[in-house]
Structure formats: C-alpha cells, structure tokens
Amino acid sequence: MSVYFKKIKTMKNKSIIILCCAFFMHLSGFGQSEWPIYGSWAGKLSFQGQSLRMVFHIEQVEDGGYKASIDSPDQGAYGLNVQQCEVDSNKLVLRLPNLMATFEGIMVHPDTIIGTWKQAGLVFDLLLLRQKNKESRPGRPQEPVGELPYRVKEVSINQSTGGFNLAATITIPPGDGPFPAAVLISGSGPQNRDEEIMGHKPFLVLADFLARNGIMTLRYDDRGTAGSGGDFAASTTYDFSNDAEAAWSFLRSQPETNAHLCGMIGHSEGGMIAPIVAARNPVIGFLVLMAAPGTPTDMLLLKQARLISEAQGASEKEIRLTEKSNKEIFRVLKYEENETTARKLVRQTLIALSDSLTPDGSQLEESMQQQLLLSVDQLFSPWFLNFIRFDPAIYLKQVKCPVLAINGSKDRQVPAAENLDGIEKNLKAAGNDNTKIVLFDGLNHLFQTAETGSPAEYATIEETLAPQVMQTISDWIQTLSK
Length: 482
What we know:
Layout: E1 39-47, E2 50-60, E3 66-72, E4 77-81, E5 84-88, E6 91-96, E7 101-109, E8 112-119, E9 122-130, E10 151-159, E11 164-172, E12 179-185, H1 202-212, E13 216-220, H2 237-252, E14 257-267, H3 270-280, E15 287-290, H4 297-311, H5 316-335, H6 339-357, H7 363-373, H8 376-379, H9 382-388, H10 393-396, E16 403-408, H11 416-429, E17 435-440, H12 467-480
Parallel strand pairs: 12-13, 12-14, 14-15, 15-16, 16-17
Antiparallel strand pairs: 1-2, 1-9, 2-3, 3-4, 5-6, 6-7, 7-8, 8-9, 10-11, 11-13
Helix pairs in contact: 2-3, 4-5, 5-6, 6-7
C-alpha cells in the first residue's frame, strides 16, 4: 500500500511510471510503411532536469497483429503489459488503461520513432531509437526453473456474485494428499496471480516453496487483470473479499485438499481481505497475515507517507506540510457526505500544499499544482473512499481461526510495531489464543533483506522473499495438522 502526496503514486504493489510536465509535440504523418516496426525501442522521458528510461518491446503475432510490453529499468519495472498495440502503416499506438497511459508515435526512419507519451492528463515528448541489444534484467534466482517436483493446474473459478471468472493456478505437492492448502491474496492495485511487482514474482516463489514442503496453494489474477474477468477500477476491498472467498471455496473443493486445513495467506491489502472473509466464514482453516494493517488505514497512510518521505530525503518541513494536508484530506474523505463539497475542500487543500512547497508564481508551482490536482479523481474512487474509512479491528475481533501475523522491521509501507501490536490486541479481544506474531529483523514490505526499506530498493534487490519467511509460514501451517 502506498498513497502519499509529495510524489503522486497509486496503491502499491503495481509499477506506475511517475511523470511530471513536458511540452506537447504535434505529430505529422510521414515515414515509410515497409519498414518493420517489431523489435525493441529505447528512449528517455525528460522532466524537471530528470530523465526516465523506457524500453518498448513490439512483437508480431501469428494473425498478423502485434503485441507489446514496456520496461522502465530505472524503476525496476519489466514486462509491463500493453493492453492494446495498434500498428497502421508507419503509425504506432500503445494503450495501457491500467496506468491511464498512451503512446502515439510515427516511424520516420528504420531506427527512429517520434511520439508522445500521455499519462493522467500530462503529455511528454518521447523519441525512440531501435535497440540492437536487449538490456538484461536483474537476476531473480528464487524463481523456479526446469522440471518441477510438483503438479501445476490452470483453472477457471466462477465468481457467482460478480458474474465473471477468475483465472488461477493451483500448485499441488507430490503425493496423494490430502494436503494443507491456502489461497494467496495479493496486495493493492491490479495484480496478476504472481503478485508481480518491480520485476519480482513473490507468489510464484512462495507457491513453489510451499509445494516443495507439502502445502497446496491457489493463486489468482485479480478481477479485471490478466486472465480474469470483472471490473477492477469500480471495485472495493469488500468486492475483492468476495473474489478471495470464491477462490477459497474452489480450492477447498479440490480432491487433494485437506478441507479442515484450508486457509488464506494475504499480503498487504490481502491481509485486510483475509480477516473480512474469516469473520463471516468460520470454516476458514487459518490465516497468514503478511504485512497486514492492524490500525485504521488513515493512520496507517499518514505514518507510511512520513517513513517513505524520510527514506527519499525529504526535509522535516516538507514532511510536516504534506502530513498536515493529508490529515485534512483524509478527514474530509472520511466524514464529508456531500461529494461536491468534499471535492472542493480537497482541491483547496492540494492547492495550498503546492503553494507551500514551491516559490510563488514559479513554473514549478504550476507543475506541482497540476500534478496534485490530477490525483483528486483517484481519491474519490470507490476503492479509496472505502479504504480510507477501513478499520481492521472490526474484522480481526471476529476471527476465531489460527492466525500467523508477520512483518519486517524495515517495512515503510505497513510499519511493523504498531500494526503487529494492533493485530495481536484485536485477536486477543476476539478470545483467539491460537495466534503467533513474528517480527523479522531487516526485512522490508516485500519481505526482502533490505538496506533502508524504501520502495526504491525493491527492484534492485535480487532476493524476492527471504527464505526464513517462507520457512516460518511452512512450519507454522504444518504444525496445525499435528
């Protein structure tokens, strides 16, 4: 989870290309249609004295059409899926609705495309040059390769309350079973079944480890993402809880599953979703809460913003100014029932913030103000309005099944101390004595061994999941069957 207003981002766990201001470049139609457009193309987005490398990979498919993906190496984001790739003679259009982004370009030379990148209302010039040698990605040594000692089954799950199907993978340990089993529930933002982020695939690595240790898993693409149906943008945490419960019911019905020991493993927002399901479904076998909130989410986001800003080198003055603005915005979002009034108050707060952080009348002030105001619609999305009003205590106090709650000491998105304490306190209030709380020293929000815990480190760390975390989860689940 990551919402803060010094630099506008969306919730965690998706790779969003953060952009500022640039000049619009009008494209005229010229170039030669016989030049092949497939291949890799590299360019740099420039803004406010900074640059961000981008690499486009365009492939021709069997039906004569095209598909594409995008890398942002400076952010450690690789293989971002392009939902629509349109090639018409010398013209190229790439659309990424999940990022509110579009690239439009014209091929003017066999090795040159000129175009514009548009995102969230901003427009940037982008010159692409054909890349001869593909840039290598950072190593991800924990991802499984070669012949696997377990079975993998692709399935489609009917989410009857939403009227769509979830695409999923079940990983089945060797042997006859029945096996302890768990649904893996990803963090916030549209995530695929591997919870892919910053070039890492945490759920793929975790599913592989658990299968090798006798535990069955099901991981699924979020609604409206990858192979799953449904509308992600119009949904809330409560809607996602219905998806998780449908996935759990499906997993529990499998012949290899130990129906009495079928639970949920939720990371970040997934650690909010799992208790919602367990509170209404007493048959849930267990919960593993990975970096899950244990405090009201408005308080969590305020602390998160401070910790991340500190890691990015923001001054105490800047942090206090944004903190003051965030408190006011969150208060309005939580308690103001009239949306027109709420939007007006939020816009006033954001304009005041840009005035405070920049010199009066400067181009930087105008740029920051524009950037901040673009976030207003996101703040009033159904998901965020529900999220900012969420109190995990309501559901944790109803959870009766065994719970393992874990966090890393360097987590700057869901700070360990207060959230583990909140989880433990609320489970005790439920009379739930079958709980275990574990703090891992030196690990970040993704449970990687980290230097500072800043999200900027995620992509640069080769480790996807610290082995001791996976071993702790596996050992704890196995003890439940004894």
